[in-house]
Amino acid sequence: MNRSNWKRIVVKVGSALIAPSRQGCSSHYLLSIAQFIVRCRAQGIQVVLVSSGSVAAGAHLFPELTKKDIAVKKAMAAAGQTEMMATWDKLFDFATAQMLLTHADLRDRERYVSIRDTLNSLLEHDILPIVNENDTVTTDKLKVGDNDNLSAMVATAADADALIICSDVDGLYDKNPHKHDDAKLLSWVDTIDASIYAMAGGAAEDGVGTGGMRTKVEAAEKAVSHGIDTFIINGFTELSFNMMLAGKNPGTHFQADEKPMQENIHWMTHTSNAQGEVVIKEDFSEPLDQGVEGLTSSEILDVKGEFSVGDTILVRREDGKKLAKARSNYSSCLLNFIANEGNEKFATEFEEKTGPIISEQHIAVLENK
């Protein structure tokens, strides 16, 4: 690892580190993380902290409830968020700032740019941004789902050089180290493929957090495709952070892609949610990033979902292969109308006047999906 090139990093801390016993926040594991952040800042490295833990921190305030529905969990988050921020604030002698986000904030391009501008402004004024998903208002439709993936989205928005994800193990193993004594740590990953995801397994089976190793690998894939070196390390031991400061890798280093995606293409691929689908003929073979004019209504078999002009859509073949995510120049209603009109001359003349269904500058081709 080449820490000398770091100018800006994102550190992600999970619920198990914030409130390990679900009896409110504890600084036991946070002291070494805070010290790491302080020392990075002293070396001129800007830091963004992505911190889970609001629900876990607020759980002890609702002890009489054995069954906690979604409304109660939102209340826990509302109560626990202030305690979590206060705990972090006590560990630093400089200003911090709270940023609460939902996926709706990130997938909307205008709001995404606003988030990026806010992060840059805070960092330029030496204020530590502390980011969390806004669990008090989020719904299934608006939810990022886990702060591992949120941290990758934030790292991309902040144009960070490195993303450090704190885990309860030393990094990615070839098998679950909690179940297999002979599990081996992977110290270096240069390509994230199906074999890497197989090692990561599924979501967390138990514990305080909502993610697992799989979500951490998903986050790494998002980050490295934007040119961000990503590390999964053991956040429960001070040694991890001392090694990082010494320029040594204490866990698993996912190497940044040598040719990262352009920022707007990365946002569309990894952050923006498709609001609908356009299903096209299986024999359509034109490369969408080079010949989008070739995608006409005559190629469309079906339009799924409801979307407006400017929304992100998924373009896929009838065999299920995902070809691209793109910004639609047509609403679903209008696209359905011209696709179902059955008059090829009408459709051709209409599209010649109004322009292509998707534009070359607003398309992200999906590979191997």
Sum up the structure in keywords:
369 residues, alpha/beta, Carbamate kinase, Archaeosine Trna-guanine Transglycosylase, Chain: A, domain 4, 2 domains, 8-stranded mixed beta sheet, 5-stranded mixed beta sheet, 35% helix, cytoplasm, RNA binding, Glutamate 5-kinase, Asp/Glu/Uridylate_kinase, ATP binding
Which helices and strands appear, and what pairs or packs with what?
Blueprint: E1 8-13, H1 15-18, H2 30-42, E2 46-51, H3 54-58, H4 70-90, E3 96-101, H5 103-107, H6 109-124, E4 128-133, H7 147-157, E5 162-167, E6 188-189, H8 194-200, H9 213-224, E7 229-234, H10 238-245, E8 252-254, H11 263-270, E9 276-280, E10 300-304, E11 312-317, E12 322-328, H12 332-340, H13 344-354, E13 358-365
Parallel strand pairs: 1-2, 1-5, 2-4, 3-4, 5-7, 6-8, 9-11
Antiparallel strand pairs: 7-8, 9-10, 11-12, 12-13
Helix pairs in contact: 2-10, 7-9, 8-9
Task: Please give a quick description of this structure.
By secondary structure, this protein is α/β, with parallel strands linked by helices.
Description:
This protein is of the alpha/beta class. The chain folds into two domains: 3-266, 3-Layer(aba) Sandwich (Carbamate kinase), CATH 3.40.1160.10; 274-365, PUA domain (Archaeosine Trna-guanine Transglycosylase, Chain: A, domain 4). Helix content is 35%, strand content 20%. The chain has 13 helices and 13 strands. It has helices at 15-18, 30-42, 54-58, 70-90, 103-107, 109-124, 147-157, 194-200, 213-224, 238-245, 263-270, 332-340, 344-354, and strands at 8-13, 46-51, 96-101, 128-133, 162-167, 188-189, 229-234, 252-254, 276-280, 300-304, 312-317, 322-328, 358-365. The strands form two sheets. Strands 3-4-2-1-5-7-8-6 form an eight-stranded mixed sheet, with helices on both faces. The protein has a five-stranded mixed sheet with strand order 10-9-11-12-13, sandwiched between helices. A hairpin with a 4-residue loop joins strand 11 and strand 12. Helix 7 (147-157) packs parallel to helix 9 (213-224) and helix 8 (194-200) packs antiparallel against helix 9. The longest helix has 21 residues, at 70-90. Residues 204-210 have low confidence and may be disordered.
